[in-house]
Amino acid sequence: MDQIHDKAELLEQIQISRDLLAEVREQLAHVFIGQQELVHQVLCALIADGHILVESLPGLGKTLLVKTLGKLLGLEYRRIQFTPDLMPTDITGSHIFNMAEKQFEFQPGPIFTQFLLADELNRSPAKTHAALLEAMGERQVTLDNHSYPLRPPFLVMATQNPIESEGTYNLPEAALDRFLVKVVIDYPHEKEEHNILRLYLNNQYIEERIEHEVETVLTAKNLLAIQRLACQIHVEESIISYITSIVRATRHNSYLYLGASPRASVALLKIARAAALLAGRAYLVPDDVAENVLAILRHRVILAPEAEIEGRNVDDVLKESLAGVPVPRPTNEPAALS
What we know:
Layout (H helix, E strand, L loop, with lengths): L6 H22 L7 H12 L4 E4 L6 H11 L4 E5 L6 H5 E6 L4 E6 L6 E5 L6 H13 L1 E4 L2 E4 L5 E6 L12 H4 L4 E4 L5 H10 L6 H8 L6 H11 L6 H14 L5 E3 L3 H17 L7 H5 L2 H5 L4 E2 L1 H5 L4 H10 L15
Parallel strand pairs: 1-8, 1-9, 2-5, 5-8
Antiparallel strand pairs: 3-4, 6-7, 10-11
């Protein structure tokens, strides 16, 4: 999609994109119950062309979410189960000697997909995480001085167990910073859990439900067009100042040992634009920024020892920091879509 200069056409394209994404949500609800915050952040990450980190216990439906979204979005998807003995070449692939051709041939690994679930990422050591860094940052894999591009769009949804769990490693800052957002999810509500059980009453395999009840709504081409459309969402100078002030406030908070970098500012802008598009607006409002601060910053800052001693967590500190930043009042807002 080329740059749209006509306001009416831009609003029309945003309307179409919003309706398509609403259909994705509706279709997803046929097999995936609850976890609306996770669904919202995954869609925002898709629109913003970023990766998502999910912290949760096993068994909360993350694999199901990726499988279902893969079909809804017309994307190829794969899953990698991270274990302590997983090697980088198990992810990227390797060169195998072809006896018939008398030469080495590249055999691509599971990372050569469009929607990758990296399950229990923090059960593997840092050298294995490193295999993901180039792919996530540059959308390519380099092996033996050869670079192999990944087919766009490319999204990694990684899960990690709480660090208190047995057999887990701390993810290094370089790996964490590659993720656009981090979502922390808990067990579903009682009503949602009842509805999950009802899905299994007819003894139908969930894969059959995905096959027969979920229809492809988008294509990779559609998604790439939506990503480009999000880049045309209008941002006032006051919103830019708001984002800058929020991120800079983390660097002067006594409860944070390490504040957020300028990359966090860029991430906050991208996710806010995605949220505005999901809401059907061609411009940002402060809530688009404020409602995504935790997801963008919680994995990019480090608590100071005194905060941990006082029993504070990252989310609490970030909420207090956000509350101290004045909220701008944008002027001359374009009319929202009905």
